[in-house]
Amino acid sequence: MIEVKNITKSYGKTQAVRGISFSIKDGECYGLLGPNGAGKSTTINMLSMLFPPDSGDLAIGGIPIGKTNTQIKSMLGIVPQEIALYEKFSAWENVLFWGSIYGVAGKALTDKAENLLKWVGLYDRRKDAITEYSGGMKRRINIACALLHSPKVLLLDEPTVGVDPQSRNLIFELIQQLNKDGMTIIYTTHYMEEAEKLCNRIGIIDNGLIIAQGTLDELKTQSQVNDMIIVDCTNTPDEKLLAEKLKTTVVVNENRVSVLSNDSKKDLTHIVTICNDAGYEINRIDIQKGNLEGVFLKMTGKQLRD
Amino acid sequence: MFKILQKELKTFFKDRRAVMLGILMPIILITVFSLAFGGLNGKSDNKISVLVSDEDKSATTKLVIAGLDSVKALEIATSSTDSALVLVKAGKYPAALIFHKGFGDSVKEIKHLPWELRYDAAQSIEMEMMQQYLMQNLFSSVGKMMSEKMVLRNTQKQFVGMDSLAMLMATLQVKKSIKTNSADMDYLQKNIMKLQSEPVEKAKDNQGIIQAVAGTAVMMLLFSLTAMGGRLLEEKESGTLKRLLCSPLTSNAILNGKLLSSMVFAVCQLFIMLIYSTITFGLVLWPKIVPVILLVVATAYACAAFGMFLASVVKSREQLQGTSTLCILIMSAIGGSMVPSFLMPSWMQTVGHLSINYWSIQGFYDIFWRQLPINNIVFLEKVGVLTGIGLCFSVVSFGLFRRNIASMA
Hints:
The complex is a heterodimer of chains A (306) and B (409).
Chain A: E1 2-11, E2 14-24, E3 29-33, H1 40-47, E4 55-60, E5 63-64, H2 70-75, E6 76-79, H3 91-100, H4 106-119, H5 135-144, E7 153-157, H6 165-180, E8 184-189, H7 192-198, E9 201-206, E10 209-214, H8 216-223, E11 227-233, H9 239-246, E12 250-253, E13 256-261, H10 264-278, E14 282-288, H11 292-300
Helix pairs in contact in A: 3-4, 5-6, 8-11
Chain B: H1 2-14, H2 16-37, E1 48-54, H3 59-69, E2 74-78, H4 81-89, E3 95-99, H5 103-109, E4 115-119, H6 124-156, H7 164-177, H8 182-192, E5 196-199, H9 207-238, H10 240-246, H11 251-281, H12 289-313, H13 317-335, H14 346-351, H15 356-368, H16 377-404
Parallel strand pairs in B: 1-2, 1-3, 4-5
Antiparallel strand pairs in B: 3-4
């Protein structure tokens, strides 16, 4: 459904995307996971045809992206990172407007708007102005506005930013439902849990490059990550000292030490000994089973939220 | 309290553009208004242009015209009567002074002088000044001669019955001792020298109303449409513009839609102002509705495109607010929105041609004051210039908008 080959994009001297390639099958949910400034939004913007890449090729549904391609744009549903809604309009007016600019009209439009607002659970409040909605409600309307024209591909750029856990779960359910119904989805996030929960395949992006991609299991295998030991100390440990003694990837973020481990039981004893010897008082220890954070740490040498 | 003072000043001075605008804007505005209304160093080069048609071609008319030419406040150009009237009617010259055949003879015979002043109805205030200059000059050129002749003629009536030699001696004696008195001068001014003065086309509307309505309407329209242009920036900031650009709509369609909506708003605003003026101040609108529609649409287009242009040039709504206030006040000052153009120095009137206000206000004068029909080239020229201004601003703002798309991500 989507083919991306070696695309690049620069803003002045800053190279935001430095040669990204990936392909997404029909009905797949592909996650672009990376920290802020990694190049996720730039990639999504190029896929949204907001601007073309400086080099490389993009194709959606077998159609290469040119300067303007109405056919491709009609296939896409865009959920921007911002709450891109007209605040003075009601939810009903917003969905009707965004549907109409995609050519949906008449009864088809009102029926679809009604169904979507019911689906996101806001039909009863459809006449309220967007300003009266909570952050989570706005996010749901933001998604609904992208679905009026029944797109084949849905591009979601960090759609849960600033949303409370309850609303986040509701949004997850909506996205899972869409994917279950066969919609191809690209989902950018810097939350590992979201990528793990929603995406069939994940591309880890950092500094404008995809450094690894595949299913969660494939990524764990690729990076040979099993567990991650997290130790909270009362003071800031010396990262270099710990890495030398443990001979594995160690990241210290303020008072938290994250250690990648293939044998957590053995390494845990070792870590406690080193910390005691070095005079680092331990507050809390947590062992996480192999996850994306560990993969990211292994691949980039830094934590996702650095 | 001092902490707050310190913080406020620090915040203000951190925004260099705001500081520049805060200091420079009043300086620029004072300069523009002073130049417009007072001239440089208090000197004004404001000359009134007048076309002179000499049908008499006598020595007397040549003497009077030479006298007029030496008046610093007047700028004299010669022309035939027909073309002079056409040029004045078209608003190219404020007035035409016509010396009809027999002017020289009438001066000699102390008969009513056949001269007339035909002026542009839109310049009637200026004409009061003009008539004073003309009368002063006529007095200094031929007034004394006429006055003497009149006294002599009256005196000679007393010599009836004398023989010719005695009459000649008496006449010479009178000539030596002749003195004009104010009663004679007054008689000459009111009866003999009286200048026929009327506009080339009579206006039905009050000039003050036209100036107030047109001047204010265009200035307020510029403010409203700049604010509407600012919605583009609002959309950019909120992310809706990005979403629109990702939709099947082209950037041209988006901008044209915004331009059209601004135009619709502008047309409505102008018509509301005109209808209000009709009801309240008696502006005669309905008989001239067709040229008014044409001018209103052209003005709306120029102003809407100007609003789009400003919104495309600036980076934020704060910048838009400062820049637009400065531009609009300057355009309004030089374009005649605040004070009629003809009261400004001539070079300032020329600079005023660069503003939307000038062309629109003059267009309204053409319709309501000069009573020009819709097919008159002078009126159409104003409509054309306004459309051209709109076109130029649209093309530039469309180009700038496209260039700035990348920065919207």
